[in-house]
Design a protein that fits this description.
The complex is a heterodimer.
Chain A: E1 6-10, H1 14-27, E2 32-37, H2 40-50, E3 54-58, H3 66-73, E4 78-83, H4 87-95, E5 99-102, H5 107-122, H6 131-145, E6 155-160, E7 163-168, E8 172-177, E9 182-188, E10 191-197, H7 201-207, E11 213-217, E12 220-223, E13 227-232, E14 238-242, E15 248-251
Parallel strand pairs in A: 1-2, 1-3, 3-4, 4-5
Antiparallel strand pairs in A: 6-7, 8-9, 8-12, 9-10, 11-12, 13-14, 14-15
Helix pairs in contact in A: 2-3, 3-6, 4-6
Chain B: H1 2-33, H2 43-66, H3 77-99, H4 112-174, H5 177-192, H6 198-215, E1 221-222, H7 223-240, E2 245-251, E3 259-260, H8 264-277, E4 284-293, E5 296-303, H9 317-330, E6 335-340, E7 346-353
Parallel strand pairs in B: 2-4
Antiparallel strand pairs in B: 1-3, 4-5, 5-7, 6-7
C-alpha cells in the first residue's frame, strides 16, 4: 500500500467528472484518483475492485443513485456527496453531518473538505457510521420522488391492442371488471375506445378521485361526467346511458340511492 | 358533518315553507279586500275563508311539487301544479260553504246572498291562485338559472386558476435550479479546462434562457419559437451527457408560423429527458417531429428511454398540466396521446387544430 490516498469519482456527466478531478489535482496533488464511474452501479463495481479510501458520489445518477451506492459502500470508505442545487438533500446532508459539495464546486469549499478528509485519514479513524443516516436519507429521497403519488390517479397504463397507452383519467368513461382484468372504456381523441388494465377494479377504486368516479355496480365504476341520463326501473335498480356512447351500464340496488332526485 | 348538512337543509326547507305560506296568505287575503264592499256577513268570516283558500292553494302547490315522485312523460310538473291549484279552489270554496251552513238551514245555493258570495269567491280564487302558482314556478326556475350561472362562473374561475397554476409550474420547471446549476457547473468545467467548446455551450445557455424567459409571459407562441427554445435545451443536455443522448428535430416548414401554447414542445422534450433518458444507464435518443395534415398539426416526441414500465418513472405533472392547458385552449379539438415506443421508451403525440 502506498502512502497516497486513493479516491473514486462517480458522476454521470463526464465534464463534471473531469472538473472535479482537475480541482482535486490542484487542491490535493497527492490524491490518486483510481477510478471514475458513470453511474451508481459502476461506482459499486469499481469500489469493490479498487477499494479507494474516499468516494466522491454524485447524488443524482441513473440506475443506482449516489445514496444507494453509498449504502453499499458503507464504512469501508470516507464518503463525500456531490449535488447540484437540491434543497432537501442538502438539508439532510447537513443534519446528518455528512460531507457534501455543491456543484459548481468552489475551490475554497473543496479545500475545507479535503483538509477534513486528510485529518480523518491520518488519525486512521474509521469512516463515520453512516448506515442509519443513509437509510433515512434514501427513504427521505424516495418520499420526495414519490411526492404527488398520493394524489388521485391521473393517468392509467393500459393495453390497447398491441400497444401500451397512457390514458388520462378524464378521458375514461367507465371501468368494468372482467374475468381477469379490468376493461377501460375511454375516448381516444373523442372516439369511444376500449383498453385493458391488469389491476383489479377493487384496487383501482382506491386510487380514483371519489368526486369524479362512482361505483354503481359490483363490477362497474363510472365517470360521473360521462353520464347522459339515468333510467330507473321499478325493481329499485336503474341503468345509466352515457353521452355519445351506446353502452348501457347497470346500477344495482345497493347503489341506486346515489341517483335519488335532489 | 352530514348531521350539520342535514340540519342546514332542514332549516332551509322550513324557511322556504314559511315564506310560501306568508305569500299565500298575503295574496289570498289581499284578494279578499276586493270583496269587502259587497260582503254582508261579518268581515272575519270573509278573511277566514280567504285564509283557508290561501293555505290550501299553498299546500296543493307544495304537494304536487314532490308527489307523485315520477310522472308520465307527457305530464309536466309545473302544469300539474297549476292545474291542481286551479281545480282545488272551487272545491275548497264549495266545502267551506257547505260546512259553514248551520244544521237545519237551507243549502247555500238557495240563499241568493250566500250564492253570490260563493260565486265571487270562486271566481276570484280561480282567477288569482293558478297565476300565483305560475309566477312562483317562473321565479323558482329563474333562481335555478341564476344558481347555474353562478356555478358556471365558479367553474370558469377554477379553470383560470388552473391555467395560472400550470404557468407557475412551468416557471419552476424551466428555471429549475437543478438544471441551471448543473449546466453552469459544466460551463465552468469547460472554462477551467480552457476548452474551445466553452463559448459554444455558453451560447446555448443564453439562447435557452432568452427564449424561455419572455415565453412565459406570452399567451401563445409559434412552433418556430418553440423550436428555438427546445434546440438549445437539447444541445445543453447533449453536452452534459454526450454518451447517453442523441436527438433529432424535424418540422414541416408550413408549421413554423402556427401558433401553439408556450412551452408545449419543451414540456414534452423535458419529460422525455427527465423520465426517459435520465433514469437510463444506457440513455437513448429523442426525436421531435412536427407535421401538418390539412388544418391539423401533429407534434410527436418519441424517446428510447426507460419507458412506461420503469418503476422510477413517475409520470410528470408537467404532462398533466400541459394536457389541462390544451383542454383549456382547444376544448375537445386537441388531444394528447401517450403510448409505448418499441422496443423501449415512450411516444407522446399532440394532435391539435391549426389556429388561423
Amino acid at each position: 500500500m502506498t502512502n497516497h490516498a486513493t479516491a473514486l469519482i462517480a458522476d454521470d456527466e463526464p465534464l463534471l467528472r473531469d472538473a472535479l478531478r482537475r480541482q482535486l489535482a490542484s487542491v490535493w496533488p497527492e490524491l490518486d484518483i483510481v477510478a471514475e464511474a458513470r453511474n451508481g452501479r459502476e461506482a459499486v463495481r469499481l469500489f469493490d475492485e479498487r477499494h479507494p479510501d474516499i468516494c466522491f458520489l454524485d447524488v443524482h445518477m441513473p440506475g443506482l443513485s449516489g445514496v444507494d451506492a453509498a449504502t453499499h459502500i458503507g464504512r469501508r470508505a470516507h464518503l463525500v456527496f456531490v449535488t447540484a442545487y437540491d434543497h432537501y438533500a442538502v438539508q439532510a446532508f447537513a443534519q446528518g453531518a455528512l460531507d457534501y459539495l455543491l456543484k459548481p464546486v468552489e475551490q475554497a469549499r473543496l479545500a475545507e473538505t479535503v483538509s477534513r478528509l486528510k485529518e480523518r485519514l491520518q488519525s486512521s479513524r474509521p469512516a463515520i457510521n453512516t448506515e442509519q443516516l443513509l437509510q433515512q436519507l434514501s427513504t427521505q429521497l424516495a418520499k420526495l420522488q414519490s411526492r404527488g403519488k398520493v394524489e388521485p390517479l391521473r393517468w392509467i397504463r393500459a393495453q390497447a391492442g398491441k400497444t401500451v397507452r397512457l390514458i388520462a383519467i378524464d378521458d375514461v368513461d367507465y371501468f368494468r371488471s372482467d374475468a381477469k382484468y379490468t376493461v377501460v372504456a375511454w375516448r381516444d381523441g373523442g372516439q369511444p375506445a376500449e383498453a385493458i388494465v391488469r389491476t383489479p377494479l377493487k384496487d383501482l377504486i382506491d386510487q380514483l378521485d371519489a368526486d369524479q368516479f362512482a361505483q354503481v355496480h359490483r363490477s362497474v365504476v363510472v365517470n360521473l361526467r360521462a353520464i347522459g341520463h339515468i333510467k330507473r326501473h321499478d325493481n329499485e335498480t336503474a341503468e345509466i346511458h352515457l353521452k355519445g356512447r351506446a353502452d348501457v351500464l347497470p346500477v344495482s340496488r345497493n347503489y341506486v340511492h346515489l341517483f335519488r332526485q335532489m | 358533518m352530514s348531521e350539520v348538512a342535514t340540519a342546514a337543509r332542514r332549516a332551509g326547507s322550513i324557511a322556504k315553507t314559511l315564506r310560501r305560506v306568508a305569500v299565500g296568505l298575503a295574496i289570498s287575503n289581499g284578494t279578499g279586500l276586493f270583496l269587502v264592499h259587497g260582503w254582508n256577513s261579518p268581515l272575519w268570516s270573509l278573511f277566514f275563508r280567504t285564509t283557508i283558500l290561501g293555505l290550501s292553494a299553498t299546500a296543493a302547490f307544495a304537494l304536487f311539487e314532490v308527489w307523485p315522485r315520477s310522472l308520465p312523460r307527457w305530464v309536466q310538473r309545473w302544469a300539474l301544479q297549476v292545474v291542481a291549484v286551479g281545480v282545488l279552489m272551487p272545491m275548497t270554496t264549495f266545502l267551506i260553504y257547505v260546512l259553514s251552513t248551520p244544521a237545519g238551514a237551507p243549502a247555500f245555493w238557495k240563499i241568493p246572498t250566500r250564492l253570490d258570495g260563493f260565486v265571487h269567491l270562486t271566481f276570484l280564487a280561480i282567477l288569482i291562485a293558478p297565476w300565483t302558482a305560475l309566477a312562483a314556478i317562473v321565479r323558482q326556475k329563474e333562481a335555478i338559472v341564476r344558481h347555474q350561472e353562478l356555478a358556471f362562473a365558479l367553474e370558469r374561475s377554477e379553470l383560470e386558476r388552473q391555467a395560472l397554476d400550470a404557468r407557475l409550474h412551468l416557471l419552476q420547471a424551466q428555471v429549475a435550479p437543478h438544471f441551471l446549476f448543473n449546466t453552469l457547473a459544466n460551463v465552468q468545467a469547460l472554462v477551467d479546462a480552457g476548452s474551445p467548446h466553452a463559448s459554444r455551450v455558453l451560447r446555448s445557455l443564453i439562447q435557452y434562457l432568452r427564449a424561455a424567459v419572455p415565453l412565459l409571459r406570452e399567451p401563445a407562441a409559434t412552433f418556430e419559437r418553440e423550436l428555438q427554445l427546445v434546440r438549445p435545451y437539447l444541445e445543453l443536455m447533449q453536452m452534459r451527457i454526450p454518451d447517453r443522448l442523441q436527438y433529432s428535430m424535424n418540422a414541416d416548414s408550413s408549421v413554423l408560423q402556427v401558433r401553439c401554447p408556450p412551452t408545449t414542445i419543451l414540456t414534452l422534450v423535458e419529460n422525455a429527458v427527465r423520465h426517459g433518458i435520465d433514469p437510463s444507464e444506457e440513455g437513448g435518443r429523442i426525436d421531435v417531429e412536427i407535421t401538418r395534415a390539412g388544418d391539423r398539426c401533429i407534434v410527436r416526441v418519441s424517446d428510447t428511454g426507460v419507458g412506461l414500465d420503469h418503476p422510477a418513472t413517475g409520470l410528470g405533472t408537467g404532462l398533466t398540466a400541459l394536457r389541462d392547458r390544451l383542454h383549456l385552449i382547444f376544448g375537445d379539438a386537441a388531444h394528447l396521446r401517450l403510448s409505448s415506443n418499441s422496443p423501449r421508451g415512450v411516444i407522446v403525440e399532440i394532435d391539435m387544430p391549426v389556429h388561423a
